[in-house]
Amino acid sequence: MAVREFPLFIDGRWVNGQVAGKFEVLNPATSEPIAVVPDAGPEQARAAVDAAAQAFPIWAALTALERGALLLKARDILFAKIDALARLITEENGKPVAEARGEVGFAIQYLPWFAEEARRVYGEIVPPPVAHKRLWVTHQPMGVVAAITPWNFPATMVLRKIAPALAAGCTVVLKPAKETPLTALEIARAFMEAGLPPGVFNVVVGKRAAPIAEVFLKDPRVRKIAFTGSTEVGKVLMAQAATQLKRVAFELGGNAPFIVFDDADLDRAVANAVAIKYLRVGGQSCICANRIYVQRPVADRFLARFTEAVRAIKVGPGFEPGVQVGPMINAETLEKVEGLVNDAVAKGARPLTGGRRLTDGAYLKGFFYAPTVLTDV
User: Fold this and answer.
1) Domains plus CATH for the chain?
2) Separation CA 182–CA 84 (nearest Å)
3) Rounded to whole angstroms, how far apart are CA atoms 194 and 73?
């Protein structure tokens, strides 16, 4: 497959120049490059904020109905490209193409939802404390919103952040994850084709997030930071945002037990446990279960059925028919998972299935790890 080149999207234009370097986007199923993108830094981030700040008065002056119409047009364009977007997500993220298609279909629905919600941002009349006065509250768009999104849901996380901001009349600067920038750029293309005014939505791709985020945090024109990622990074962003009293919307980490009581339907419990643990980006999501508690009277029966179901999961490249779980996102994540399993086993855990890298045949070059069940943890 030919390696494609993708530019940045700033002020309604595709921007390739004035960037010091580039980096490769890898297919985690093969560890081979699928695209080259500019490695943007502070200069490009400032240009994107400049564009968003200049576009804000024009965008905010439109009615909610007018802004919503553009969101609906973008929805239609994205829906027409749903299969191509799903393939792109599978290429850069690794998840099975059927799962990727489901993600795109789900993500697109944020556009009509928030297009309609923005029409109902009502004001409020407040009873005055003294005669001959009137008090009322109106809601105004706050300004530029900086959005920082993760790699595990490349379409959903982007549209969930930008749809409400754009519908409300804010302009957006997006920094997508370095592992999955291509989906974000294709979403920007759809908005451009829909007729979104220049500067209203900008995408800055960079291998290092910190220098770009620093621009967002220090520029007073950026009024809100929207971030999905680790709790550790979220704490840093919140502390820095507080110096300018920027508003924040954070979705941080996850710590999700799955609990099976002794009166549960075990077949249903097993099916749900497999789905919520393994069948969402191969478990690489904050909403996936990270441990399972089972009441003792049904523990052995549940464990036997669960282990059998996990052994039956088909792992492989996302374009292969019937694949349920793709690769880890990168080599670092693969090594982290391997280290966690090895550490648990060294401390007494028993692997009932999995517990190893997959390296044969179709797995040879990718970042594959067998779905694993550990007990006595």
Assistant:
1) 4-252 (3.40.605.10), 254-312 (no CATH), 318-377 (no CATH)
2) 12
3) 6
Work out the number of other CB atoms within 10 angstroms of the CB of residue 17: 7
Q: Which among 116, 117, 251, 335 is annotated as catalytic?
A: 251
Question: 296-323: buried (b, 16+ CB within 10 Å) or exposed (e) per residue?
Answer: eebeeebbebbbebbeebebbbbeeeeb
Backbone angles phi, psi at 231, to 5 degrees: -65, -40
At 17, is the pLDDT very low, low, confident or very high (cuts 50, 70, 90)? Answer: low
Residue type, 228: T
Distance CA 95, CA 205 (A): 21
Closest CA to 88 of 101, 106, 75: 101
Confirm if 28 and 330 have CB atoms less than 8 A apart: yes
Which distant-in-sequence residues (6+ apart) come within 8 Å of 236 by Cβ? none
- Rounded to whole angstroms, the Cα distance separating 255 from 23 reads 33
- Catalytic status, residue 251: yes
| Alpha carbon distances (Å) from 334 to 29, 229, 327 | 12, 18, 9
362 three-state secondary structure: helix
Expressed in angstroms, the distance from the first to the final Cα of the chain is 43
Burial string for 260-290 (b: 16+ CB within 10 Å, else e) reads beeebebeebbeebbebbbbbbbbbebebbe
- Give a three-class secondary structure readout of 141-199: CCCEEEEECCCCCCCHHHHHHHHHHHHHCCEEEEECCCCCHHHHHHHHHHHHHHCCCCC
| Assigned token pair, 152 | 């595990």
What is residue 126's predicted lDDT score, i.e. its pLDDT? Answer: 93
Q: Give the tens place of pLDDT for each residue, 75-121.
A: 999 999 999 999 999 999 999 999 999 999 999 999 999 999 999 99
Sign of CA dihedral 47, 49, 54, 60: positive
What pLDDT sits at residue 3? 87
- Alpha helices by DSSP H, listed for 204-295, are 209-218, 231-242, 266-278
Contact between residue 108 and residue 78 where contact means Cβ atoms under 8 Å apart: yes
Nearest 5°: the CA angle 342, 346, 350 is 80
Residue type, 249: A
